[in-house]
Write a structure and sequence with these properties.
heterodimer, A: mainly alpha, about 70% helix, B: alpha+beta, about 45% helix
Chain lengths: ~180, ~290
């Protein structure tokens, strides 16, 4: 990162080679549109190049920060592009939080992404479908609880309970099972 | 006891908060509590880590090769604006949001950005002066004209004060970070101790909710100065003049060096719920 802050384009290219795939994967998961996802990737990385200081190494892992920037950017894009079809799309989202076998991606990235995450992944897999789906609609669909309730035609209280229980299980899995760094 | 009740209510909502699934009112309530409760902030941090895992568990797909060349050619032209010392983290998750509050921000970076803005303001001043002349010439609707002129002249004053301060070698700066309801906002308070004049410039400020208003406060060694209430423009920018010839009179106590600049969001009536701090910053060291 120090070299990127100093304006080293080669270092930046290496960083793109490592993290470009995960940023694209998160973007396309949210946007479901290749061209729009590519725009988000470009936007996220160009911003990173211009303002590398926005990442503070003391506050957490770079990859977590980067995907959270990408997620927010993609959700913004999703909202502006697809506002009209929002509810239809949301209702059509399939639960698919578990990755299929990864092929063709940078092996170090794959290792980084899967490192120490077995417990959380099994917690995700172990969530009741409706909890996982509700969390996914919020996280990848950018919907509020109220909007999810409308989209799924479920009472708001039910949606709130699913999110609370589901997130609490994920959190417990992370705290109990995973040694961080 | 009331804090325990707040804790329980906040914990119920925190999972949805880290997923950005709360509506605006709920979000605000949670953030107000987080501001005062370290235990809930710790819980928030754990939930954010869990939410982060969701992103990292997406199916990995190879980015199309064209993206890389587009990115590399996009960065080929301009050099990075920032240096690593000027830390101002992206408010992407509240972990970084809260970190941003803790970290003192360096103003130099913002000054560079605002110098560009100052040029735009000069253009605005010219435009506004032209507009003022036009309005004066037309005499179309006396009342409307008066109202229009009042708005215009106050803008011009803020803009001229800003330009004056930006050309003042003794001007001091305090960069402000947004938080809570104004997490996206950033601002810069520029003032000249010699001229008894200061201007708060801010951008990306959301409209104040109905019945609420923004209020600028200057904390000095000797007390707090009331910088007056203000309303952001439609584009989320605001320029507030403190001191000067005929601007907001400085009232209340105060004296000695400026220690902090704070913007609160509070009920317009001055009553009701406790004002929430939505922007704050401290002066940067003098060179």
């Amino acid at each position: 990162m120090a070299r990127i802050c100093a304006g080293d384009a080669d270092a930046f290219a290496a960083l793109f080679d490592r993290y470009g795939d995960i940023v694209y994967s998160v973007s396309i998961r949210i946007l479901r549109d290749e061209a729009a996802a590519e725009d988000v990737v470009q936007d996220v990385f160009v911003r990173l190049w211009r303002r590398p200081d926005r990442f503070d190494a003391q506050r957490g892992q770079f990859v977590s920060w980067l995907v959270s920037v990408a997620r927010h950017r993609a959700i913004d894009e999703h909202r502006s592009l697809q506002r009209r079809q929002r509810y239809e799309n949301a209702a059509g989202v399939n639960g698919d939080l578990l990755p299929p076998p990864t092929t063709g991606v940078d092996p170090i990235l794959a290792a980084l992404v899967s490192e120490n995450r077995a417990e959380v992944r099994s917690a995700l897999a172990g969530l009741p479908d409706e909890q996982r789906r509700t969390i996914e609609l919020a996280y990848f669909g950018g919907l509020t609880q109220r909007e999810i309730a409308e989209a799924l035609q479920q009472p708001l209280g039910t949606v709130k309970t699913r999110i609370r229980l589901g997130m609490s299980k994920l959190r417990a899995a992370l705290t109990n099972g995973v040694v961080r760094e | 006891v009331s804090n325990d009740v707040d804790c329980a209510a906040t914990r119920e909502q925190l999972g949805a908060y880290v997923l950005d699934a709360l509506d605006r009112v709920e979000t605000r309530a949670v953030e107000q509590h987080l501001w005062t409760c370290e235990a809930c902030r710790a819980e928030l941090s754990a939930l954010e880590d869990a939410a982060g895992e969701i992103a990292l568990s997406v199916p990995l797909t190879r980015a199309p090769t064209g993206v890389r060349s587009r990115v590399m050619s996009a960065i080929a032209a301009p050099a990075p604006l920032a240096q690593p010392s000027a830390t101002q983290p992206e408010p992407a998750t509240s972990k970084w949001r809260w970190a941003a509050i803790a970290a003192g921000a360096a103003a130099a970076l913002l000054v560079a950005a605002l110098l560009g803005w100052a040029v735009a303001l000069q253009t605005q001043v010219n435009d506004l002066e032209d507009e003022q002349q036009q309005i004066a010439a037309q005499h179309a609707d006396a009342q409307q004209q008066l109202a229009g002129l009042a708005g215009v002249s106050s803008d011009i004053e803020a803009n001229e004060a800003t330009l004056l301060l930006l050309s003042d070698e003794d001007a001091r700066y305090a960069s402000l970070d947004g938080q809570g309801a104004a997490a996206e906002a950033e601002g810069l308070y520029v003032w000249s101790p010699g001229e008894h004049l200061g201007v708060l410039l801010s951008k990306d400020l959301a409209d104040a909710p109905d019945g609420m208003t923004y209020h600028l406060w200057l904390r000095t060694e000797g007390g707090t100065i009331d910088g007056g209430t203000f309303t952001p423009d439609e584009d989320g920018t605001a320029a507030v003049v403190v001191g000067g010839s005929n601007a907001t009179p400085v009232s209340g106590g105060g004296g000695g060096p400026l220690e902090a600049v704070v913007v609160t969001l509070e009920a317009s009536s001055g009553e009701g719920e406790e004002p929430a701090v939505v922007m704050s910053g401290e002066p940067t060291e003098t060179p």
